[in-house]
Fold this sequence. Notes:
- The chain is α+β, with helices and mostly antiparallel strands.
- It is built from four helices and five strands.
- It is 37% helix and 30% strand.
- A hairpin with a 2-residue loop joins β3 and β4 (70-78).
- It starts with a helix and ends with a helix.
Amino acid sequence: MTEKIEDLMTREEIPYGVIVNIRTDERIYLGDREKIKPDSLIKMCEDDMVSLYQSMEGQILPQYWGQGNVKMLISIPQEDMMVLFFYYKRNDTHEEHHKGKMIDEEVKNLLQIG
Length: 114
């Protein structure tokens, strides 16, 4: 599973990602966190993943957060699972949104429970 997500990250030039099991707080870290500077957006999210997950209820997904040129894509591929991708903005807002929706769909397909 993680190999396919890492392939997606490489293809889409996403340096760092986290897969979070909300029930157990188990986290799978992918990529290289050191490639995201400044990392304050990561720090803001990592302390309370449950609250971040709960704040997504009723929101249109995927969600995008940003701080300067650092962006975060929030995907919820299934109940009690959240995937965060951290990257640098490359496109205009419309293109970012379109690309994010494609990434979100691929993540959902890759992480389906069969």
